[in-house]
């Protein structure tokens, strides 16, 4: 049988950046792209300690404009170009208690990290992609962009909704010029932080980890597939999206949520 693609080497001539690439989903994506042969740069505020020796680490705090500018400069001067940009950084640190407990700082910090960091990195890396008429940008959003939870993550949900909208608009501008732009919106992912959170809930409520996990799934309205995603589930799909096999895909949002969103 004719082999159509060599999945292990299909990204061998590509240089990729994965933000938030030291933990959770970003880490799984970085390892997946590296396995496909890409030169992969990961970034975070702290060095992960141990990491796959094929990955390149650059320290940057992307919650402020200077951190993004530094990262763009450092990558373009050291690697000469960037072909694949995975904006995986994101998260929420705001307290529970609804709208009334959230101040301007909570809103601003969340929007900086979840919306403005991708906007700034795209702006920094797009010119050289457009010049070469080649590149792929992925925005990792969340199902909260369309299924917002109000207790502690309202700014996060609003920022992710903005990211999904921005991603679509940007794709219209740059796809005719050779750069594909896509959004991936995961549901709940069982990262190492989520595992620790389940252990804490189980301990404080004197239940098992399975019961704690079920209580979070119930709060989401249920996950039809019966469990949260693993980071590798998201990484595998991103690996496909950035590959030449997905060359006709742009301007689309892909939801990976085990069926969590209850509507069509
Ligand atoms: N986990 C979920 O259930 C879930 C669900 C839907 C969507 N998502 C989305 O999926 C993406 C990955 O989430 P995750 O939960 O897998 O991530 P995670 O495990 O919490 O890891 C976050 C990563 O971002 C880095 N980071 C945090 N703040 C940073 C900053 N200011 N500047 C630079 N790097 C920073 C962290 O390293 P340092 O702390 O060292 O900086 C780490 O590498 C996010 O966009 C998230 O919104 C996650």
UniProtKB/TrEMBL annotation:
PROSITE patterns the record matches: ADH_SHORT
GO biological process, one term: monocarboxylic acid metabolic process
Coiled coil: none
SUPFAM superfamilies reported in the protein's UniProt record: NAD(P)-binding Rossmann-fold domains
One Pfam family here: adh_short
Domain of life per record: Bacteria
InterPro entries referenced in this protein's UniProt entry, alphabetically: NAD(P)-bd_dom_sf, Sc_DH/Rdtase_CS, SDR, SDR_fam
Family of this protein: Belongs to the short-chain dehydrogenases/reductases (SDR) family.
Protein name: NAD(P)-dependent dehydrogenase (Short-subunit alcohol dehydrogenase family)
Source species: Chryseobacterium shigense
